[in-house]
User: Fold L-2-hydroxyglutarate oxidase LhgO from Aliiruegeria lutimaris.
Amino acid sequence: MTDFDAVVIGAGAVGLACAAQLSRSGHCVLVLEAAAHPGEGISSRNSEVIHAGLYYPTGSLKHTLCVAGRRSLYDYLAERGIAHSRSGKIIVATDEVELATLEMLQARGQANGVEGLRMLSRAEHMAMEPELSITGALLSPETGLFDSHQFLLALIAEIEAGGGLVACRTPLTAAFPRPESFEIRTGGAEEMTLRCRWLVNSAGLSAPAVAQHIDGLSAERIPRYRLAKGNYFRFTGRSPFSRLVYPAPVDGGLGVHATLDLAGNLRFGPDVEWLPDGMSEGEVYYRVNPERAESFYRAIRRYWPGLPAGSLAPDYSGCRPKLAGPGAPAADFDIRGGEIAGLVSLYGVESPGLTASLAIARHVEALLQG
Assistant:
């Protein structure tokens, strides 16, 4: 006899999506969240971009789950009336080397099944975004924006409608495998001991730390993150752009890009600020250093030379749970089933995790049932 069919650790977008997917399948789910509110980690510190799926190696989890997740996400948002926009984006090149990168991205995107990708003529990109000074551009019409907060609320509503709960300020303190179940112990104001059939570690930045509390997991198998902070600056004037503008990708990220929110406000970021090796998620400082503005001006003026001086102000920052450090090829999602019967662990779920969340949830359910 178990108290819940499943316990999901982490009430970010991916954890809530996993719990909602299990709820749709008729399972009663408890979500444990150490923070005071759902979505306070990676899910609240991003660009709210719906990614098309063109950047990721063909056949990788990032590729397959992003493309499937993006298609599901647009349907989910439309069915529930959640604010979103399939605004599209252009990826820009400022020299011949970057133009070759765009051609490679187009080929990869087409291999990944991304719809509508095409190189723009000079006349086309000048008509679309006349403020840009670029060599060439790739159009991704399937890229978009959405209200991630309303998305999280919709997932929570599904969980609760299925008889489940989201318990905040309730960290996992220990998990012990038992015959066909897990014994779960929690901290917080009211400590609990309960049983569940399935356990999902979707704790984001804290996933490796949470794994250390699961009895029977080999410490050598738990990955170490190299954290990368991403800073954003807001533009204090009126946006000159009508869609998202991305430069060619850089080491550790997609470059300092121009992102419009659903209200039309413009911000730039994120950059890639590698944090000291060994820094834990609890040591991350989220304040944006105003001195980083200088590097933003340089990066942005490569494609928008008209960026006015003094027009950028520090906004917010996020942190990415990287499985590979500076200079190394970007790692794929690490989603593991089978280490312990009934356990699925998710590591390194950074971008495009938000876009992919509904597809990740289906993948996790299949691992649990497999």
About this structure: DSSP finds eight helices and 20 strands in the chain. The domain at 4-47+149-224+330-369 is CATH 3.50.50.60 (FAD/NAD(P)-binding domain).
